[in-house]
Amino acid sequence: MNKVFLIGRLTRDPELSATPSGVSVCKFGLAVNRNFTNADGEREADFFNITAWRALAENCSKYLTKGKKICVVGNIQVRNYEDRDGNKRTSVDIVAEDVEFLSPKDEDEPETPQKPKAKKKTVAELKHVENEDLPF
What we know:
Elements: E1 4-10, E2 15-18, E3 24-37, E4 43-53, H1 54-63, E5 69-82, E6 88-101
């Protein structure tokens, strides 16, 4: 069985494109922290290339940005190729089957005039409703 679960943060904004036949494809990088520290006490990370297809690709492109935390469920795909110099290379990619958005929706979103951040109401601003006024 070829199945992988990764939780990490995007290393770059997703890049959406389409195949010649019009199928959406989205590519982005994912940094996943290791569970241990190195000899210097620093936590290292592994970096993966993620590819999503069709509707999942469009959703990733629309809602994800660099730094967002996500969980990717997918499979490992190994490709062998020759580079420009004729050297044999191997690429390990993750083909996403599912992507769960783990960062809060408004995390790190700058406030803009077109889209102001929602103001959280305090208890004093909430209106008291009597039980008799409820329709159920």
